[in-house]
Design a protein that fits this description.
Structural class: alpha/beta
Radius of gyration: 14 Å
Strand content: 25-35%
Largest sheet: 4 strands, mixed
């Protein structure tokens, strides 16, 4: 199950939040074996955030994955998501950051996998 957590300084209305969730669901399929049917998304908007010591428009996207994905797939995912995210939220692309955390152990449905 992939889990994406977004923190951003901008306030999003319900329509933009839903569009953002849908975009993540579409783009997650760029990662082998991942799909919207098992994707969990958390969006924390209107956060007080600082970048370079100053308040302002910025965002952090954290992508948590069970098992390692190929670097090429993560690169394609990052490029597709960062551009779409910037366009949707108005946060400049050079103020949006993404990291990937890949786990060998993941518990779901009551068991450790």
């Amino acid at each position: 199950m992939p889990y994406i957590q977004v923190s951003l300084s901008e306030k999003l209305d319900a329509q933009k939040t839903d569009t953002l969730k849908t975009m993540f669901g579409e783009k997650i399929e760029l990662l082998p074996g991942k799909s919207e049917s098992v994707l969990m998304v958390r969006i924390d908007d209107a956060r007080t955030m600082y970048f370079r010591g100053l308040p302002g428009q910025c965002a952090m996207i954290e992508v948590h994955l069970y098992k390692e994905s190929p670097k090429e797939a993560k690169s394609a995912f990052a490029s597709a998501v960062l551009g779409a995210f910037s366009e949707l939220t108005g946060v400049p692309i050079d103020q949006i950051f993404m990291n990937f955390t890949e786990y060998t152990d993941w518990a779901s449905r009551g068991v450790l996998r």
